[in-house]
Task: inverse folding
C-alpha cells in the first residue's frame, strides 16, 4: 500500500507482537479484548500515516535524521516505526509498561 508517496510496510515483528497482544487479551476474557484491529487500522490511517514525522522520536534508537518515531495507541501501546523518504516501516507494537530499552528494533 502506498500513501502520500510512501510505501507502507508492516514488519513481521510488528504483526507477531499484535497477534500476541490479541491472544493475551482473549485469554483474559473476550470482553477484555477492547483492541479490535479495525481501531488500530483507523488510528494508523488517520493519525500516523498522514504525518509520521510529527510524532515523538523513539528515545532508544536515536539517529541524526530522527528516523525512528513512536506514537501511543489507546493510552497503553507504543507503535514504533521508521520514517524514510519513500517508505514507512511499522516495526513494533508494545505494551507501554514494558521496558522499552530492552525492545529490539530491526
Result:
Amino acid at each position: 500500500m502506498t500513501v502520500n508517496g510512501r510505501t507502507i510496510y508492516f514488519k513481521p515483528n510488528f504483526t507477531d507482537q499484535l497477534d500476541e497482544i490479541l491472544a493475551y487479551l482473549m485469554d483474559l476474557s473476550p470482553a477484555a479484548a477492547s483492541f479490535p484491529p479495525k481501531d488500530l487500522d483507523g488510528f494508523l490511517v488517520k493519525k500516523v500515516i498522514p504525518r509520521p514525522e510529527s510524532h515523538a522520536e523513539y528515545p532508544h534508537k536515536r539517529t541524526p535524521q530522527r528516523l525512528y518515531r513512536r506514537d501511543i495507541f489507546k493510552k497503553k501501546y507504543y507503535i514504533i516505526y521508521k520514517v524514510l523518504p519513500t517508505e514507512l516501516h511499522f516495526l513494533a507494537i508494545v505494551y507501554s509498561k514494558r521496558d522499552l530499552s530492552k525492545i529490539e528494533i530491526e
